[in-house]
Every structure is written in C-alpha cells, then in structure tokens.
Sequence to fold (358 residues):
Amino acid sequence: MGARVITVTSGKGGVGKTTATANIAVALALMGKKVVAIDTDIGLRNLDVIMGLENRIVYDLVDVVEGRCKLRQAMIKHKVYPALYLIPAAQTRDKSAVSPSDMLAVTQELREEHDFVIMDSPAGIERGFRNAVAPADEVIIVTNPEVSAVRDADRIIGLLEAEEKGPGKLVINRVKPDMVRRGEMLSIQDVIDILAIKLLGVVPEDENVLVSSNRGEPAASDPKSRAGQAFRNIARRLCGEEVPLMSLDESGGFFQRLLKLLSGSTTGAG
Amino acid sequence: MNNLLDRLMGRGTPGSAKIAKERLQLVLVHDRLDLSPEKMQALKDEIIAVISKYVRIDQKNVEIAIEQRQRDNWLVADIPLATDSSEK
Fold:
C-alpha cells in the first residue's frame, strides 16, 4: 500500500486550504517523511507560490494525465527538503482536464515510493472537489470559526459521508483567542459541537503566515511561528503521536489583559 | 467602567459568538435534511392532527424538534396527553 493519500478541502474558498496543505507537507518533511504535495486546483494554481517553487515548473498535473511527460518529470523537488516534492496544477486549463480515475492512477503510482501524498483541493463541491477526494484515504477539512465557513464545512462533511470518505478530520484555522475570550468568535468547542467530527488541530491567526507566504517559505519551517507550531503538531498527530492542543491563551492572565487594555490593542490576534 | 472591569476580569456580556452558534445549529438542520421551516411546521401540524384522532393532546405543551446527536439527526417529539387535570 505505501503512502497515505490525504486530501485537504473546505468547501468555502479563502479559509487557508492551500496554506494548510503546504504547511502540513513541509512539517511532515521536517519529520523525515517522504512527501508529495499535489495541487489539484486546475486553472487556479497556487500551491507552487506558497511553497516557493513557482520558478521551477516545467510540467504539470495535466501534462502527466495527458501523457506529455512521465510522472517523475512533473515532480518538483523542494530546494530545502529533498524528500518533499510538488506536482503543480496546470494554469491554462480547467477542472475537466482531469478525472477522478486519473487522480486514482497518479496517486497509485506515488504510493509505492512515498510516505504521504497531500492533495490541495479546489474550493467548491464540483468536479475539482471530486477529483481531489476520489483517491483519498483520509480527508482533512479546513474551516474558520465563522458562520459561512462552518456551514460549508458541514456540507462537505455530508458529501464525504455520502461517498464513504467521511466524516474526515477538522482543522480550525485563523482562531483569534482574544475574540473567543470576548465571546465574539465561535470557540473550538462551539465548532466541534456543531460539526461533530474529530479535531485534528487548531491554528491561531498569525501574521507570520502571510510573511512566510510572501517569502515562499511555509510557516511550519519557522520555529518561532505559532501557526507553524500548530501545523507541526498536526503533522505529528497524523503520524499517530498524541500531541495536546497548544495553549492559544498567551494573554490569558489578569496583568496581560490589563497591559493589553492599557496599550489599546484588545482586538489584536493571539 | 463596568465594561472595563468585565474585560479585566475576562468576562463580558454574551457576545455574537453565541448568536452565531444558535443560527448555525438552526440552518444546518435545514441544510442537512432539506427541510424548510414551513415544511417543519406542516410536519408538526400533521403529527398533532394524526395523534389527535386517537387521543386528546395537551396542545400547548407539545414540543417537536430536530435534535443533533453527533452527526445524526433525530426528530424528537414530546407530546403530553390531555387529562382532566391538564385541562383545568
């Protein structure tokens, strides 16, 4: 059997799916795993820029599927982690260029030589989503503590259950502990109560994520980034380790709150 | 000042998160079951009508709602029957 094929999806766009894919892939590579990340968002390629590999693309996923190159030729080796590869999406085609059975064939070939195949799904519930989910052994659903993202996550979970791929595991991204504390953002427990699936991890809002996207170096490789730490924890849980949720409450004490109030930054991210 | 004190103590008036949770729980019932509030009302009315053919119901205290238990949905009905005492 070999590699585990894990698809990262969300329903709603903009919740941090691609960022999560890149960070989980890098975090697994940091643990010494052999990882292939696949961008299945045909026509809206992005995983390459988040991973900093956009200048090295020669062939893409559609070239593989249509027989213009060997799978190996479309795999871009990461410059820092030699056991991490990216298969980019085609930019000038659309979702119909790839079918679910194409994705099964591609992942089948990758299973033999790697530990993980991590697939970034496009937003939505149409062809692209079905392509990404078809070969998945496991599905990670990324959401934000926000009504529209949670509603769409619920819809995705329903579809996964209908395809016997579900219910999947949940990553709650962009949590602002300060807002949760003030009762102005859904808490982790609220989201779990509503969606009723297993929690894989919680990622705090962190400016470092944007900074690392700017640089093309996912936050998981930054030891000081809190979001990076959260993604490293997620990777360890995927490998079967029991890792407690990290405390999001860095400003939880009375004096910290006093200081924050005095400095007028009560709405800052945690 | 009260507000400031509340925030220093880490508490405040119930915020929008509570509203968000309640709204989500309601809308997801309808999403999952494809059951609009109108259809739900019709379902309740018909259940009450059918049962009323056989026994008298204490209609004021009927509770019929969809409840989420993990990822399963349950139609839960609490239908008190009318007795002489409940009609007083």
Notes: The two ends of chain A are 41 Å apart (CA to CA). Chain A touches chain B at residues 146-147, 150-151, 154-155, 157-158, 161, 167, 180-187, 190, 193-194, 196-197, 252, 254, 257-258, 261, 266 (CB under 8 Å). Chain A has a mean pLDDT of 92. The beta strands of chain A are 4-9, 35-39, 76-77, 84-87, 116-120, 138-143, 169-175, 198-204.
